[in-house]
Specification:
With 187 residues, this protein is an alpha/beta fold. It contains eight helices and seven strands, in the order αββααβααβαβαββα. The chain has one domain. Helices cover 38% and strands 18% of the residues. It has a seven-stranded mixed beta sheet, sandwiched between helices.
Length: 187
């Protein structure tokens, strides 16, 4: 990891004041898809920085290219926390965001994704988009571990890994994963 990445991680931890709880799981460098509700442009950076250094080195936040590619400061930050930028405006059938994520993660990297698809400033989480389901369908070996990021001076809760159940429909899986994030609020 670069010096800039380490400084970003320390700064994000200090500014957010967040602590981390692992519920029914422990940090591990095995490949995972972490998913979370999305309330701030800094969610990806705060979640990434909350991971242990060994896990963080192998984890790529998935972020919106139209936001993180704007201006040299954002580009520099995104590059240094190894963000995978998705162009939400030029989605093509032959190169879907899910295919891009799978190709970029290969057999090495974990991902942090925000299945709501965009920031949600309301009280209730938005419905999850189908990308999380298709990641699970195309890579059934990858566990998903949910995050519940909350505002500044808070605790980030990381829940137990989840897999796409055999025969589970897209709607059932997305509802189950969304419910899992909701349940973390009560822990």
């Amino acid at each position: 990891m670069t010096l800039t990445a380490n400084v970003l991680a320390i700064t994000a931890k200090l500014l957010s004041g967040s602590s981390v709880r692992w519920v029914d799981c422990q940090p591990d460098t095995c490949q995972r898809v972490y998913f979370a509700n999305h309330t701030s442009h800094l969610d990806a950076l705060v979640l990434w920085s909350s991971l242990p250094k060994s896990v963080r080195a192998l984890t790529r936040p998935v972020a919106a290219k139209d936001y993180w590619d704007k201006g040299w400061v954002r580009r520099h930050i995104a590059k240094n926390f190894n963000a995978l930028l998705i162009d939400r405006r030029k989605i093509k059938v032959h190169q879907s965001p899910v295919d891009l994520m799978l190709r970029e993660m290969g057999d090495e990297y974990s991902l942090i994704v925000f299945p709501e698809g965009q920031r949600n400033t309301g009280e209730e989480m938005a419905e999850f988009k189908s990308g999380l389901y298709y990641l699970g369908k195309k890579r059934p070996d990858l566990p998903r571990g949910e995050f519940l990021p909350v505002p500044l001076l808070s605790c980030i809760t990381i829940g137990p890994p989840m897999w796409l159940e055999n025969g589970e429909t897209k709607a059932e899986f997305l509802q189950r994963t969304r419910d899992a994030v909701r349940r973390l609020r009560d822990i």
